[in-house]
Amino acid sequence: MKEVRARALHDRWMASDPASRRKFEALEPEFALITAMIQARGYAHLTQAQLAHRMGTTQAVIARLESGRTKPSTRTLERLAEATGMRLRISFEPVGVG
Fold this sequence. Notes:
Layout: H1 6-16, H2 18-26, H3 28-43, H4 48-55, H5 59-67, H6 74-84
């Protein structure tokens, strides 16, 4: 049986369906935010439960945030930054730059 890797399937799918590729690429800012939240927790060497405790919430809430099932408010991001010893920076960029 031939082994098919997820990355190869994804690359084929993106190449063969421009509309799906655009939809996927439109999610990049959400993926970047999720990645940044997970990296901040990792930088602080915290489990989801430990981060939740520091933020005054539950581990389930942290799991939902890190999975992308819930979008965080600015206040939540501020609490996450404080709990992980990070500084929150939000910026705007012109479209088509970066």
